[in-house]
Design goal:
Elements lengths: L1 E4 L7 E5 L9 E5 L7 E4 L13 E4 L7 E4 L3 E4 L7 E3 L6 E6 L7 E5 L2 E4 L8 E4 L5 E3 L12 H21 L4 E5 L2 E3 L1 H8 L2 E4 L4 E3 L18 H6 L3
The protein binds the ligand CC(C)(COP(=O)(O)OP(=O)(O)OC[C@H]1O[C@@H](n2cnc3c(N)ncnc32)[C@H](O)[C@@H]1OP(=O)(O)O)[C@@H](O)C(=O)NCCC(=O)NCCSC(=O)CCO.
The site of ligand LWKYYRTW has 16 residues, from β15 and α2.
GO molecular function: enoyl-CoA hydratase activity
Catalytic activity: (3S)-3-hydroxybutanoyl-CoA = (2E)-butenoyl-CoA + H2O; 2-methylpropenoyl-CoA + H2O = (S)-3-hydroxyisobutanoyl-CoA; 3-hydroxypropanoyl-CoA = acryloyl-CoA + H2O; 3-hydroxyisovaleryl-CoA = 3-methylbut-2-enoyl-CoA + H2O
Pathway: Lipid metabolism; fatty acid beta-oxidation
Length: 233
């Protein structure tokens, strides 16, 4: 079972409940009096089809009638759970959803393929650039990991790759690197993770860490699965 209290109206509570599949009594239930009484709003099987694995329900922070259920598909209802529309995504098995409490069009959803920003129609593209004329990104501060051993270094590279570089590369919104100065080490790798790169006349790119015997850790040398498939680096 999963439960969600509306941030707009704390008397409104949604409960997503699995039942014995022979009885087929599962679905979404709602209480409008803070849990005293309940009624079923939907028995749509898509809502509970992954219940043996996980089950998630979220209420919109601005509108008590907008509800999200994460299952094999991600589903959205705008009428308090009566009818559902499927959200598109790069992958199935949706596990988690964050909705910006101040802007309910701004969301991050996580599925087995990674994390995605919402399909915010207002955001057509994302531009990453440096503040000022000098640098796009000068790379990592080597003094922060100079004392790491091999396994700590590997862990740092794997974590950074997943948290930032794969995240950027897998965004459905196009990401442009506007390289306006030094793009060094991880900075160059960040530009490479973007979908497009535009270099200014003062752009200077390189992997200076190799002069210290450090293998660049974020995909510029070895790429990731996508690169191996498409050979695009
Ligand atoms: C970026 C360079 C070329 C700028 O050179 P310069 O104009 O001479 O300015 P500096 O005096 O060297 O630097 C100014 C100021 O910035 C700090 N700084 C520079 N680079 C970094 C960095 N990567 N991380 C943290 N801080 C940085 C520098 O210490 C100075 O600070 P002060 O407090 O003013 O002293 C030049 O700085 C340069 O070559 N930097 C190193 C670039 C680099 O090696 N990048 C790769 C890092 S490894 C990596 O990213 C791993 C990914 O696989």
């Amino acid at each position: 079972m999963a439960i969600s209290v509306s941030p707009v109206n704390s008397n409104k509570v949604f409960a997503l409940i699995e039942s014995d599949s022979d009885q087929d009594k599962g679905g979404l239930f709602v209480s409008n009096n803070a849990g005293k009484t309940w009624s079923m709003v939907s028995g749509d099987n898509r809502l509970v089809q992954r219940a043996w694995y996980y089950i998630e329900v979220f209420t919109d922070p601005k509108d008590e009638d907008i509800v999200y259920v994460l299952s094999a598909p991600a589903l959205r209802s705008e009428d308090g759970g009566k009818t559902w529309k499927r959200l598109t995504g790069t992958h199935g098995d949706f596990h988690d959803l964050w909705i910006n409490p101040d802007n309910n069009k701004n969301m991050v959803i996580a599925n087995d393929g990674g994390a995605e920003l919402d399909e915010d129609n207002e955001t057509k593209a994302i531009i990453i650039t440096g503040n000022g004329e000098k640098a796009f990104v000068a790379g990592a501060d080597i003094s922060e990991f100079a004392h790491f051993d091999v396994s700590q270094g590997g862990e740092l590279a794997a974590k950074g790759q997943e948290l930032l570089f794969d995240f950027v590369e897998n965004l459905s919104t196009p990401v442009i690197a506007a390289v306006n100065g030094f793009a060094l080490g991880g900075g160059l790798e960040l530009a490479m993770a973007c979908h497009f790169r535009v270099a200014g006349v003062n752009a200077k790119m390189g992997l200076p860490e190799t002069t210290l015997g450090l293998i660049p850790g974020y995909g510029s040398c070895h790429g990731n699965d996508t690169d191996r498939k498409h050979g695009d680096r």
